Amino acid sequence: MFILTKSRALFVCAVYAVLLFLAPAPVQAGRPKEGDVLKIFSNQRVYVITNVDEGAPALADALLEGCAVKERRVLSLSEWNALPRETRWFVTCVYLVDRERLPSWSQVPLTCRAEPTEVWQEVVRTGRDWGIAYDVTVSAPDRAHLERAIGSFRRLKEAPRKIVTESVRSLAVVPVGEGATQAVTGSPLRGDRYPHMVPLRDYQSRQTRMTAMDEIVLVDRGSAIVNTLPTAFAAVSDKLLAANADVVAWRESKPGGYVRAYVSAPTGAMLASIVAKSPDNLLALAAFGTPTVLASARDLRPVRRVAVASVAGQSMDDVTAQSVAALAATELRNLNAFEVLERAALTTVLAEIALDQAGLTRGTNRAKVRQLAAADALLIVDLSRSTGGTQYTSQAVRATAPMEPAPRRPSEPSRLKNDFNVGGRNGDLLKAVVVGLLKNKVGTKTDDEYETDLREYRRTALPAWERSVRDHQARADTRQIAWRQTIAARSTVHIAGSVRLVDLTDGLVLWEAPIASTDVAEKTTQTRTAYTTGEMSAAPGADDLPGANGEIPGELLTRTAEKAVGDLLRALPASALLPSTTAPPISADTDTAQTGKIIDVDGDTVLIGLGTNDGLRVGDTLVGTGASVGLRLQVTRVRPRTCDAVF
């Protein structure tokens, strides 16, 4: 049984006083934190009134997320006006207003007097007989700034006591054509301007509100919608719809110091490529007052039939080269713009003839390739340079648990009559403090008593501790330590070369893009157990590691080359005009005969240069002309620009 004597009580109090002195100060509570403004919605019936048609519930969720509201309703302006006025007295009203979508005569709410370029935030406390409610207004010039203002309102520490306004400068993005819409939705717009989309169908109706905004008009000339441009663009339609392969941009001034910029591209892919280069500042694309060419596309529309072959270089075998060529053919087919043929035999021919930057300049070489390819153009995947190697490294993780620590030196006898031990890292310091506090209360030993205890400590306790320390050190020096050792290989490869589309008529390069790709692969080659002696021994190394051997793993080389070539061909629509894959409408009144050349003959099958783009269908009969009068062929397979037929 533990008996709390006077001396023990004093000892406990002294220890508690020391610990209390060393303890950290408590953290003050009750300070307002970020987001405290949301407490005004707690246990309230909240009506969110907004003129936003699409995504109104999402805006309400963005504002009230995490709020314990009693009821939440989202109402349009017409629904709000239809409610009896007396029902409005029992709710907290939140007005989320996109002023760009407001009619010029509308003012919601009536207390909001925001300028065209202002974000307006206001909280009005409305005391009722039954309690307290609020009227909250968040009004912005456009949808993008409204979403931003909702986020900033949630971060307030408390409800503002006066109206909070912020001057902003809006940027309206007007996409013209499907490709233009995809260009700005596929790559999210960023930057301090918070650009927002204005559908072309709404452009005319929003002109009153857009007078205090900058605008940028993105035009995809390949879209059919460009033929129905709004009358606001009539003065610049000739510039917007110029029939060439250039991406042009310019700007014009608007009243009040605002600008309207234009970017017009022949295809949606080229427009997306230009927008992606400057997502933070779209207006920077149109820096001049006259049309300026930002990029030019290669015109590949005359090309119909493409053969694919590869040229292997150092460190690359024929199997890898053929694999890359097969992937290039697949990616080219996925563009749905060419008839693609794989010609494995061309790899040997291309290795024997001279290729230069201009293409196939020698007529004899070109004739040989053209005969074998049976195509309009040849896509050459040149993988001439590949470098890299493999480096091996070793890493060891200790598997043996550490030893228990050595025994601590025992404390010397105390001067107090009631001796005690205090453990822990700072036990001696704490013991000295307690002795100083209690020596007058508990009493101290005589000199003879203290000397007797000290001799016993030095004769028995201290030698025993020294022996245990020596035994612990001896075990630590001879202990066997197990390590889990992992041998890893890090391989690096760099691919360099080019992809060229060569016209087999004149041998010149129609389109070219460089290949430059680097990749790294790491894998574990071996896991083993290694041993060392001694508790403090270091992790073992590996003396049998091979050095960098200059060899590139075949799978890494193939993967890197295929990825580089695939990325280039998928980006081809952003730098070239491709043949259209849309078949023109066939008029029932026309009886115009289509003509096409025989491109290739494979057994009983004849390849002819007519397809769905020319109105051809399976089962149609083709009649020969000229020297082939009387020759009749039946179509068995139709592609966009070619077909197969049999006699």
Structure, explained:
With about 650 residues, the protein is an alpha/beta fold. Helices cover about 25% and strands about 30% of the residues. The chain contains 13 helices and 24 strands. Helix 1 (about 5-20) packs across helix 11 (about 425-440) and helix 8 (about 320-335) runs parallel beside helix 13 (about 555-570). The longest helix is centred in the last third of the chain and has 32 residues, at about 445-480. It is flat, with a radius of gyration of 41 Å.
Task: Provide keyphrases for this structure.
single chain; 647 residues; alpha/beta; 6-stranded mixed sheet; 13 helices; 26% helix; 30% strand
Quick summary:
This protein is an alpha/beta fold. The chain has helices at 6-22, 56-64, 77-82, 143-154, 178-186, 237-240, 268-277, 318-334, 345-352, 363-373, 427-442, 447-478, 554-570, and strands at residues 45-50, 71-75, 92-98, 118-128, 131-140, 164-167, 170-176, 196-197, 213-220, 246-254, 258-265, 292-296, 298-299, 305-312, 339-342, 377-398, 480-503, 509-533, 576-577, 598-602, 605-608, 621-623, 632-638, 643-646.
